[in-house]
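Recall from the previous lesson that a structure prediction takes nothing but the amino acid sequence as input. Here we apply that procedure to DNA-binding NarL/FixJ family response regulator from Streptomyces calvus. The sequence below is the only information supplied.
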Amino acid sequence: MIRVLVADDEPLIRAGIRMILTSAEDIDVVAEARDGREAVETARSTAVDVALLDIQMPVLDGLAALAEMARAAPRVRVLILTTFGERDNVLRALGHGSAGFLLKDSAPQELIHAVRAAAAGNAYLSPAATRHVVDTLASPAATVRGEEARRRLAGLTEREREVLALLGEGLSNADAGARLHMSEATVKTYVSRILTKLDCDNRVQAALLARDAGLEPSAG
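The prediction returns the following tokens.
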């Protein structure tokens, strides 16, 4: 079983998340927290695999709780679940090692998939969250940033550039595969190769580079 901690200051939100997650036979919500401080203490004292943290919480907000949890309970994988996608929030979440960034209007199955991915040690950013984050961060880029992005993309093959362009649009591996007539596994291989070549830690960073470089999906 994947043991989950849900932290949100709104009881109805916690109840809704619990209902969604416990509908999956391999997930159990073992603890809840009403604020970031309580979430950190619970993660430290309870056997938890994945923590879902809201950003806007009293006492200690979700991002501060994420930073403390990384030190106090490094075994716990943290997913940020929020309606907010501002630049500073996203950068802090990624910088402190968040395993994923989900919007609260994500589909229930997407939430379940994200928890499973985090528990397996993978990073997860839903297509909706990726598009939201990219649109937030990739404001009209300065010339220097665009030039740097194009320089980093210069070492990619044409096929890798096609895959990266679709990441920039927020497509999942499955959707990108359908667009390019490739299997999802093949797209996953390309994504791993792209992240290595670009020295990016995750899909969001790669997507931002694609947007800064002005990389657009091919018409075909």
